[in-house]
Amino acid sequence: MRTQKIISSSVFQKYLMAASGLGLVGFVITHLLGNLLLYRSEGTAFNNYAHGLEGLGGLLYAAEFGLLGIAILHVIVALTLTLKKRRARSTGYSSVLRSKGGKSKSNLSSRYMAVSGSILLIFIVLHVIHFKYGPGIAEGYSVDIKGETARDLHRYVVEEFQKPLYVGLYAGVMVFLGFHLRHGFWSAFQSLGTNSPKYSKPIYALGVALALLLSTGFLCIPLWIYFGASR
Amino acid sequence: MSNTPANPSAKSDPAKLAKLMTLNLRVWRQKSPKEAGKFAAYTLKGVSPNMSFLEMLDLLNEGLHHSGDAPVEFDSDCREGICGSCSCMINGQAHGPELGTATCQLYMRKFKDGDTIVIEPWRATAFPLVRDLVVDRSALDRIISAGGYTSVKVGPHAEPNSMLVSKDNAEKAMDAAACIGCGACVAACPNGSASLFTAAKITHLSLLPQGKVESHRRSYRMVTQMDEEGFGHCTNIGECQSACPKDISIDTIATMRREYMKAIVKS
User: Fold this and answer.
1) Which residues of chain B fall below pLDDT 70?
2) Domain spanning B139-266 has what CATH number?
3) Which residue among A11, A97, A102 sits closest to B92, beta carbon to beta carbon?
4) Which part of chain B is CATH 1.10.1060.10?
């Protein structure tokens, strides 16, 4: 009874939201670090990296399942809390709620986490289908790495980012990633109760910096490839 | 609402008399929780900039009374910002546009002649409407009843040096204790969350020796009660701290979450 109450409590749900969110941030950082290799025009390094990951075998599957679990948890808790929010104010205000400013952290990023989150969710599903389960060795995207035939993912990425639609779509979604992280990163620490007057401001600033770095880091990859800077 | 008597205090000051304002009010009128409510439009003349917002509503009610209409019901008591009774959503802002003030401390000089002011009650499922601008905020009392107290017998004054409270903690506890339970945090929160209210009390008591004894039980019970009352969750937007008439910080919410985690782990 007590355990059930704790798990369903709004505070515990926020712990889950925060912990899963930080896990996803960790992944996004690793993902960008790997993708930085795409800034090199020569594809060997990127293909070696992708091939190396595939070579991890069971470990990679475990990591992927873990990541999927974290992502699903993040989405389910978000949905639960959003529904709770609707119930908490069954009769809404006639006038629009206006912020008084002051110390409020109300901005587009904090108010529309559900919108940016939904966009990111749809994007992630499409992105995985697009690249992870996209054409491989059988379709001719093959390269030789140390005598082994591997997938030429670099060539596929470069070809796909010659299409303006994909470039626009990928770059556009990364703006939402920035918005989501700007509030999300700081919010996770606040939800876990690690914030205090001393650390609150630096953590908020770190969140803004991280959001900016990660979103521009990703955003520039399709633009970099499209405008031929990598050639 | 024409021909309403002007504020006598304004009459005594000719300089201010010239500045009397006419306001267009849109006030939420609802006879009972069961009946549908709607906005009523009033034009109120003779509003002195020196009136408080509640005095302006008094002026409106005086006129309504003279014309045989039912006055607008609203909560008020001390009218000096310490009781937490007044509760008006003014143009979409809890307690109006001024930071760190309750509705009773909001002066009409914040508005201009000819302004339209929309006045609504707090909106939250946990705050059922009673009549017009009055809502039932006893959900907050029930959160306090669940654990917002100390039941340890502390006896007569202890020798102060035997149980030290650091200045930092004393200040933080006092800042949190400033909560007057008005419910503006709930009203301003996009999620209708009572986290700031609950967190203020948990923080206040957990920092002091008398309150530390029951801190685990308190945070568990108060959070549970807060959820059972049907308040929303906190998404750390921080609208509550800018609506709070006592400037209570959302750092208290972080403290509440820490205290709740301790409650889970240690008991």
Assistant:
1) 1-18
2) 1.10.1060.10
3) A97
4) 139-266
